[in-house]
Specification:
Elements: H1 6-13, H2 19-30, H3 32-35, H4 40-46, H5 51-60, H6 66-78, H7 94-115, H8 118-130, E1 133-138, H9 141-155, E2 159-161, H10 166-174, E3 181-186, H11 192-204, E4 207-213, H12 218-222, E5 225-229, H13 242-261, H14 264-287
Parallel strand pairs: 1-2, 1-3, 3-4, 4-5
Domain HTH rpiR-type: 4-80
Domain SIS: 124-265
Keywords: DNA-binding, Transcription, Transcription regulation
Length: 288
């Protein structure tokens, strides 16, 4: 997993940490410049925690240990000031709104890139490449991500589905061939319908992939593979979950290109066939 944007990651995942880990997190956020020169024991003493809590905190952040945390903090401090996340205020002018939305999108993508586990991306891409069928499911804004998955892998010649009716989805998954994949999408990792279908997919023998905001959850623990996007801080206005959508679509694009590159000649051939089919359909519609 990448170590970029670690301070933003800590800030956003703070509410999900244990009390002892939160002590460590708050100290890191309050004095990152000091942390890079500390030992584990010094860190434990200054944060009023324990060495074990410091190590657990590092692992909760997706890091191997305290040395990697210091490297990540050093990298963050060497960068320009982050763009940051901003909420909307009453009677704001359009120019300010454009700047804020752009800043939120850029920060979300930066944080997500910092979370990327390239080995996991490659494993998931090969799993999707070998799958006879792919089922993607999400609710609300996550349903748009599921549809994007289905459309992209249809272009690669896969039997890919983004079914919103749980009964139809259940029937389809029950008869899916061995090696088929279920992708459960929930930014909060707490959508009950997604969790329900993840459990059914496991019971049915499908390969399971969770796609959530960063952090441990029942959904990610259940799945064979876990994909994470950054967690943005809570905001009063979340118009169509814009920040999470940008990050989720970005991860899907990365997976799509990695999957397509496994056999680029075959992928390009299949993509061209779908393009030709759509163009033919448009010509027929125009003639009518």
């Amino acid at each position: 997993m990448g170590v970029g944007q670690i301070l933003s990651r800590i800030e956003n995942v703070l509410p999900k940490l244990t009390q002892s880990e939160q002590k460590v997190a708050r100290f890191v956020l309050s004095a990152p410049e000091e942390v890079v020169f500390m030992s584990v024991q010094e860190m434990a003493n200054r944060s009023l925690s324990s060495s074990a809590s410091v190590v657990r905190f590092c692992r909760s952040m997706g890091l191997k240990g305290f040395p990697e945390l210091k490297v990540a903090i050093s990298a963050d401090l060497a960068k320009d000031q982050k763009s940051g996340y901003y909420d909307l205020n009453k009677n704001e002018n359009t120019a300010d709104l454009v700047d804020k939305i752009l800043s939120n999108a850029v920060q979300s993508l930066r944080d997500t890139v910092g979370l990327l586990d390239l080995e996991m991306i490659e494993k998931v891409a090969h799993t999707l490449y070998n799958a006879p069928a792919v089922f993607a499911y999400g609710v609300g804004a996550s349903a748009l991500v599921a549809e994007d998955i289905a459309q992209k892998w249809l272009r690669l010649g896969k039997n890919a589905y983004a079914l919103s009716d749980l009964h139809v989805l259940t029937m389809s998954m029950a008869n899916a061939p061995k090696g088929s994949v279920f992708i459960g999408i929930s930014y909060s990792a707490a959508t009950k319908e997604v969790l329900q279908m993840m459990k059914f997919a496991k019971k049915t023998g499908l390969v399971t992939i969770s796609f959530t905001g960063f952090g441990k959850s029942e959904l990610s623990e259940l799945s064979d593979f876990s994909l994470f996007t950054s967690l943005a801080p809570e905001a009063k206005v979340r118009s169509a979950a814009t920040g999470s959508k940008h990050s989720q679509f970005f991860i899907i694009d990365v997976l799509y290109y990695v999957c397509a590159s496994i056999d680029i000649e075959a992928s390009l051939d299949k993509i061209q066939k779908t393009r030709d089919a759509i163009n033919s359909l448009k010509r027929t519609e125009a003639a009518d």
